[in-house]
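pasting Small RNA 2'-O-methyltransferase for the record, 474 residues
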Amino acid sequence: MLLTVTTTRRPATDLGYLLVKHPDRVHSFDVPTGTAYVLFPDAAEDRCTAALLLDVDPQRLGAARGARAQQQAPESFTLGRFVNDRPYAASSLLAGALAKVFRSALRGESKDRPELAGEAIPLEIRVPVLRCRGDAAALFAPLGWTVTADPIPLDDVPEGHPLAGDSPYVSLTLTGTLRLCDALNHLYVLMPVLDDAKHYWVAPDEIDKLLRAGEGWLAGHPEKVLITRRYLAHRRGLAASALERLDRADPDSVDAPADTVADEEAELPVARRRPLAEQRRDAVLAALAESGAARVLDLGCGGGALLAGLMADRRYTEIVGTDVSSHALDLAHRRLRLDRLPERQRGRVTLWQSALTYRDDRLRGYDAAVLMEVIEHLDPARLPALEASVFGHANPATAVVTTPNVEYNVLYEGLTGMRHSDHRFEWTRAEFQAWATRVAAGYGYGVAFRGVGDDDAVRGTPTQMAIFTKEEKA
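structre below
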């Protein structure tokens, strides 16, 4: 991934003094997720460009995330350590590298050009590929930037295809006259905010990092609530604390609509009486209990949240969790403490690695199968393969499917785009019901629909659920 900083203030090569990097050299730095390089492709008296290039190592990226960070996203893309956009699209990875290699410049310090460090100079910043979940202009323009965010189209996608159109990435160009330290701090905070993801566990000390980088501009920013919540990975307790400190720093600020519920790991940035994940799990367990199932498949089980609920109920005599990710299965194994259970209890639970888009004979003959928040992680073109393998080949007597209701998203303050960075689509109620009705008719099931979570009169519930029941042959 790449970021360039250009100035035309003469002598333009003084940019090297501000960044503490000699324009005639290629500088390399070891960072936790790979190697960062700083070079100057253009270094003349009237124009100078510094480029920050980050080469991501997938193995080191996985190690940098840490076990706890991995646990926070058990439903993330299952090959995410190796097959993803992280080496190419600007994100918190690039922000972290920027913080390391330009540490003095971020602080506004320059031993050789102290007066220049405090001067606003003409700047042009380019980020050729940035995943943009929102309006870049709304974040950068209030800070004095002229913003150009050109959508990057998808290659070789036929018109009419579900993936046709622009990608979720933009080529970002910022132009303005600002202090270099301010420009770098804007990038350090707002790149991961636009990406709406972080590659590491967000701890309470991230509040201090945010307030330090946002000093002088964040407290008065019209989108400070959105910026704070996203930067702190939607951890509501941390966001509330940060917003309270920002309000104290800005005497003209109105009370920010901060969430005060101490639910640190809620999936969405709004206060709720009960976490939606808990309501969803209980709704699925209730549907399984009504079906009379004893042998249950949890397909795409992730870290095992539903498996734990199934194990707590003795009516389920055989419980199988499957996932394509071996890492997710390891998390589930540790979460369920299978190695510590008595043999009789341990014998009820099996974990298998299996891909839902391929037929697996081991999954045939079960009373019920659950796809809880799974289908939206597949590309739409892969759904027919899942339908054939689950409803056609495995053919459980009952199938329970849940997925987000995209109509409800507008009620989540600060949420733009989809609810999760790996969601490939989110459906309206009509779209989900049309899909489920078609699948049911094609594979000999009846289907009923329920909502999960707080019910809005116009938007419905945040989660929608379909219960498929195998029809008796005449």
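The radius of gyration is 25 Å.
The longest helix spans residues 180-195.
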